[in-house]
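User: Hi! I'm working on a homework problem where we have to compare a predicted structure to a textbook description. Could you give me the structure for the chain below?
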Amino acid sequence: MINHDNRQKGMTLLELMVVVAIGSIVVMMAIPSFSKMNAHLNLKGAGQTMVMDLRRAQSLAVRQNSLHQVDFTLDTPITLPDGSQYDAMYQVNCAAGCATDSLPPARYLGAPSSTVSLVSSVDGAGDDAASISFASNGYVSVPTATPFRITIRSTQTGETLCVQVFRTGRISTSLITPPAVC
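Assistant: Happy to help. Predicted structure tokens:
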């Protein structure tokens, strides 16, 4: 005997709408977490780039047997020839007579659309500092008891990354959540 059941198999429109609604709710709950994770990764990336540039200046100072420094420009609006504006920058420089072709490019932070900003650079005495210098032995050329500190902050989450350069030339980073300070 042949069964001639004419009912169609599949999902009704109502069932499909329920599945889409549940999927939409799950995606909407994940978006804030993704945004926070993206801001965190941008902050860590800016810190890693800064550490890389500091280590590059230190390495060049040892290799070229000359003083190399990283100059910071804070709280001064910087406008590039293309019209883009930034709040801060840092650049690796060297003493006279060294090869400038091996220096990393200037780094700019704090654009209006940027998610990270360079907040401060403080020398070991607690004063605002415009530069940090590495001697030919890789040590900080002006040794102090406390480390040179650079503060980078996420403009979205308020998280702070503290980059510390010790007088021995050791460079470390630590992530700080507000209201703690570097």
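For your comparison, note the following. The longest strand covers residues 88-94. The radius of gyration is 26 Å. Good luck with the assignment!
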